[in-house]
Every structure is written in C-alpha cells, then in structure tokens.
Amino acid sequence: MKHMSRKENNAQHNKEVKDQVEENLNDAIEEVEQLDDQENEQAEESAEASQEEKLKQDLEKEKDKFLRLFAEFENYKRRTSKERLELFKTANQEVLTAMLPVMDDFDRAMNELKKSADKDLLQGVGLIHNKLRETLKNKGLERMTVEQGDAFDSEIHEAVTQIPAPSDKLKGKIVDVIEPGYKLGERIIRYPKVVTGQ
C-alpha cells in the first residue's frame, strides 16, 4: 500500500469538502427554486381564487337585483289587478245603488197589485219584477234578510225610530222594516231602515 502524502491527503480532503459544499449549495438552490415555484403556484391559485370569488360576488349581486326586480313586478301586477277589480266593483256599485229606488218602487207596485183582482196583470208585472231582481242578483246584489223580531244590531241596521213594543218579546228588537237593505258581495251598500221596540 502506498501511503499518501499529507499534501495529497489534504488535496483529497479539500476536494471532498468542495464537493460536499457544491452538493449542499446545489440542494439549497434547488430547494429555493422549489419554494419559488410553490409560491408562484400559490400566487396563481390565489389570484384565480380571488377572481373566482369576485365573479361569485358579482353573480350574487346580479341574482339579488333580479329577484328584487321580479318581486317588484309581481307586486305591481297584484296591485294593478286589485285596483282594476276595485274599479269594476265601484262602477258596478254606483249602477246598482242607482237601481235600488227602482226595486223599491217595484216592490211597492207588487204589494198594491196583490190587492187588485186582476191576476193576469199581477202575474205579468211579477215576471218583470223577478227578472229585474235576478239580473241584479247575478251582478252581486243581495237583499238583506231582516224580519220582525230579529235582534237590533247597530252595525248592520239603521234605526229610524223607536216605538213602545207591542209585546215583551219585541223589546229591544226590530218591530218593522221600513226599507230593505242590500249587500254587494260582502259589503253593505244600503243599510235596512227599521223601527225598534222599547
């Protein structure tokens, strides 16, 4: 075996150290490059994520605007439909209210004709009377049923006068109906005029 001289030994050792340093340096450079690549990828992913998040937010804003607009449109349709219906009802109410005195006159005429002996006349006028009543009923007009002995209710009856009750059963009750009341749908358009007993 040959013995290496100290110089050669040092050169060999220096070469090994140099190789080791170069290898460590290359590893460090490679590690830094990998870290740079990872940071770049993360930055790109972050940029993509923030772009995607921005698009999602924009989409949500547009969706919210659309839903609000749609709700406003539905409310508008409902409101105009209701107003149109109210307009028809009001127009109908005016015509029907104007017809009530005609119905009252017909009722009085029928009562007088019942007293006469002319049955053909009574039957003919009765047919016209029924036709008018049915026509008005089909338009929503309904006569309120109020009879003698019914309890007086100030919400739905109009007391014209009070008289001494003919019997104890009629005290505080309706004694007579002077003018019938009428409803249009659920709304009272003319309150029945009554006489109450005291």
TrEMBL record:
<dbReference type="GO" id="GO:0042803">
    <property type="term" value="F:protein homodimerization activity"/>
</dbReference>
<comment type="similarity">
    <text>Belongs to the GrpE family.</text>
</comment>
<dbReference type="GO" id="GO:0051082">
    <property type="term" value="F:unfolded protein binding"/>
</dbReference>
<keyword id="KW-0346">Stress response</keyword>
<keyword id="KW-0963">Cytoplasm</keyword>
<dbReference type="GO" id="GO:0051087">
    <property type="term" value="F:protein-folding chaperone binding"/>
</dbReference>
<dbReference type="GO" id="GO:0000774">
    <property type="term" value="F:adenyl-nucleotide exchange factor activity"/>
</dbReference>
<dbReference type="InterPro" id="IPR000740">
    <property type="entry name" value="GrpE"/>
</dbReference>
<dbReference type="GO" id="GO:0005737">
    <property type="term" value="C:cytoplasm"/>
</dbReference>
<dbReference type="InterPro" id="IPR009012">
    <property type="entry name" value="GrpE_head"/>
</dbReference>
<feature type="compositionally biased region" description="Basic and acidic residues">
    <location>
        <begin position="1"/>
        <end position="21"/>
    </location>
</feature>
<comment type="function">
    <text>Participates actively in the response to hyperosmotic and heat shock by preventing the aggregation of stress-denatured proteins, in association with DnaK and GrpE. It is the nucleotide exchange factor for DnaK and may function as a thermosensor. Unfolded proteins bind initially to DnaJ; upon interaction with the DnaJ-bound protein, DnaK hydrolyzes its bound ATP, resulting in the formation of a stable complex. GrpE releases ADP from DnaK; ATP binding to DnaK triggers the release of the substrate protein, thus completing the reaction cycle.</text>
</comment>
<protein>
    <recommendedName>
        <fullName>Protein GrpE</fullName>
    </recommendedName>
</protein>
<dbReference type="InterPro" id="IPR013805">
    <property type="entry name" value="GrpE_CC"/>
</dbReference>
<feature type="compositionally biased region" description="Acidic residues">
    <location>
        <begin position="22"/>
        <end position="47"/>
    </location>
</feature>
<dbReference type="GO" id="GO:0006457">
    <property type="term" value="P:protein folding"/>
</dbReference>
<comment type="subunit">
    <text>Homodimer.</text>
</comment>
<feature type="region of interest" description="Disordered">
    <location>
        <begin position="1"/>
        <end position="58"/>
    </location>
</feature>
<keyword id="KW-0143">Chaperone</keyword>
<dbReference type="Pfam" id="PF01025">
    <property type="entry name" value="GrpE"/>
</dbReference>
